[in-house]
Specification:
- The chain is an alpha+beta fold and 153 residues long.
């Protein structure tokens, strides 16, 4: 399933990137989304900035058949790997999202580019649910969760 999200900001790419990778911002975002255990880390690997998060989310909005399979919570592990800034502050990266114990995975790209009003962040990803028979029923709720999780840390 193809997922695309877009966010427009009133500040340039360098300022937006500084916020998106600020450990306090990442912590606040993860804490706001999680109902239980969570973790976050922002690291530098060479010229890349890597944001790694783990969130515990409720399965309340999943179909009953999916809840039986997933349990009362979903544990999402996300890694955003941002490359170096270009001359105009633009950045490109990758995102991966895994759900513990559930054969659902998301892989995609991240772009943060200058725009007339500041900056635009785009996420393009592919969500795959490898669950026979109930895969289709889990994709739309998982898509909502992935969109919420993938657009920001």
């Amino acid at each position: 399933m193809d997922i695309r999200t877009r966010a427009d900001y009133d500040h340039g790419p360098n300022e937006v990137f500084a916020v998106l990778t600020d450990p306090d911002f990442v912590a606040a975002t993860v804490n706001q989304m999680s109902v239980g255990g969570q973790s976050h880390q922002v690291t530098t690997r060479g010229d890349h900035t890597v944001v790694t998060t783990r969130r515990t989310l409720p399965t309340d909005d999943l179909p009953d058949v999916a809840k039986k399979f997933a349990g009362p919570v979903l544990i999402l592990d996300e890694v955003q790997d941002w490359g170096p800034a270009g001359p105009d502050g633009a950045r490109h990266g990758t995102v991966t999202l895994r759900i513990d114990g559930v054969p659902v995975a998301l892989t995609g790209t991240l772009d943060l580019t200058p725009s007339a009003k500041g900056a635009t962040q785009e996420v393009r990803a592919d969500l795959k649910a490898k669950v026979p028979l109930i895969g289709g029923t889990t994709r739309n709720p998982c898509r909502r969760r992935a969109s919420d999780a993938g657009a920001t840390p």
